[in-house]
Design goal:
There is one protein chain. The chain is mostly helical and about 260 residues long. It has 10 helices and 2 strands, in the order ααααββαααααα. α1 packs antiparallel against α2, α2 packs antiparallel against α3 and α5 runs antiparallel to α10. The protein is globular.
């Protein structure tokens, strides 16, 4: 674990946490690839889940009182059930032996199936981020339970839940403060569910490295910097324009996703 890696994790957590307070997504999407460049895929998911979960709880303390209870129930209960399924699938995939991929020129890479899956998921979400404005993808309120299932499942599987959640919540008729508070509560519910599954299913075999000094330091730095970003964001509480950042992040995720899925990274 180098000082550069720690700095990258801290800076990413700080910026992404502050921006995600307004946009409703971004912390897990941005932080997972950074962790994945330092740790094995399943450890990166667990580390991101811890930072994201603690950050979500902190945001609930800051703005959770603004949440819309009706939306939380219609979206949150299906999301928790689906997060359980997604996290259980992650634990099962983590048990699979690595596979060998053959490339032109006789070049081969050995990649765990979970890493291939994560890389492809990151690619998909990166492409979604680079498509025309996501407002065009907003769906009517009757789709909230389905949105909860979809975002909850991917939240449990890879930590990518916020972007999908925002698509469904944008037409729920929530004012800005309620939108932010509802997002925080829903993220916290999904994070709590997947952390319970990760710990119960495979902590000793696949997630015990989180307690090693290097990983613990990275998670601690990411958590504290995420708190700082959320606190600053709550003080500003104004809409942040993310068009330029979205393209930078999207293209970076394409590279990282392709690298993870192919075994290059």
């Amino acid at each position: 674990m180098t000082a550069t890696s720690i700095a990258a994790i801290g800076l990413t957590a700080f910026l992404a946490s502050g921006l995600s307070l307004f946009a409703g997504f971004g912390l897990g999407t941005l932080l997972l690839p950074v962790f994945a460049l330092v740790f094995p895929a399943q450890v990166a998911v667990a580390a991101t889940a811890v930072v994201h979960g603690l950050n979500s709880a902190f945001k609930v303390a800051l703005v959770g009182r603004e949440a819309n209870r009706r939306v939380v129930l219609r979206f949150g209960l299906p999301a928790m059930a689906a997060a359980f399924a997604g996290a259980s699938l992650l634990a099962a995939l983590a048990d699979r032996p690595p596979v060998t991929l053959s490339w032109p020129g006789g070049w081969t890479t050995t990649v765990p199936p979970i890493q291939i899956g994560m890389g492809l998921l990151i690619l998909v979400f990166a492409i979604v981020e680079l498509l025309p404005p996501t407002e065009a993808l907003a769906l009517p309120p009757r789709w909230l339970p389905f949105g909860g299932v979809l975002s909850g499942f991917f939240g449990g599987l890879s930590g990518h839940q916020g972007a999908l959640r925002a698509i469904f919540l944008r037409r729920a008729g929530l004012p800005p403060r309620a939108f932010v508070g509802t997002q925080a509560v829903l993220a916290c519910l999904v994070d709590a569910t997947r952390l319970l599954v990760y710990g119960a299913a495979a902590w000793e075999r696949h997630f015990a490295p989180l307690t090693s000094p290097g990983t613990l330091l990275a998670v601690t730095v990411g958590t504290l910097c995420g708190f700082a970003g959320a606190f600053l964001g709550a003080r500003i509480f104004t809409k942040v324009t993310m068009t330029g950042l979205k393209w930078i992040v999207g293209l970076s995720l394409v590279v990282v996703g392709a690298g993870l899925a192919s075994g290059v990274l």
